[in-house]
Amino acid sequence: MVIKAPERITYTDGHSFCPGCGHGIAIRLIGEALQELQMEEEAVISLDVACGGMPIDVWRYDTIEAAHGRPVATAVGVKMARPANPVIAYLGDGAAYSIGIAETIHSARRNDNITVIVLNNCVFGMTGGQMSPTSLQGQVTSSSIHGKSMEEGGGTLDVINMLKDMDIAYLARASLCDTGNIKKAKKYIVKALEKQRNGEGYGLIELLSPCPTNWNMEPGDAAEHIKEIIMPVFPVGEFVG
Description:
- This protein is of the alpha/beta class and 241 residues long.
- The chain is 34% helix and 17% strand.
- It is built from 8 helices and 9 strands.
- A 7-stranded mixed sheet has the order 2-1-3-4-8-7-9, sandwiched between helices. A two-stranded antiparallel ribbon has the order 5-6.
- A hairpin with a 5-residue loop joins β5 (123-124) and β6 (130-131).
């Protein structure tokens, strides 16, 4: 088990994540994967704004903060200009599947040789916990105070169902709710980056993440909520590759 943080992730000046947030775990896993694959020096990471932009404060990789919903488009541009560099797009479910859904789909359709990592907490986190495309049916959010319904908010978007039949290199979903699932998440990130290094194309890993602040839960309860409520709706595992 790795105890020491990756060399390029530092918390000297603190961080901005809420207690129990999954972003801190996710960026640690990305750092461990890049270090193990010896990609730290060449990696370029495209970030979203809001919660998805906070990693820029604690990691020391070449990083571009894209416009909201555009990290995938930015990553594609970087990869076109620097094809030898490993390129990651890191963003939340609101950005990836709402304002950025076109970029997410069409990059997959082209099988662009990038790695996309999406943190899915079923809400728009930074702006107040509003309903997102991945909010569950019946989920109470700041913009669905009576619970999301088909009439008010539509269905629950599952990116696996959208992309699993496309000609892409890798597609997986993991959960950040406990140690076993976190280990699988890292394994998936490593595998997607290896496939990018081999020139195989587009990889997307969705990470089911707790958001205790916007779910109005204690961190431990948020982790259990993922296991009991979210994972039955969003099954984890490898789906392509």
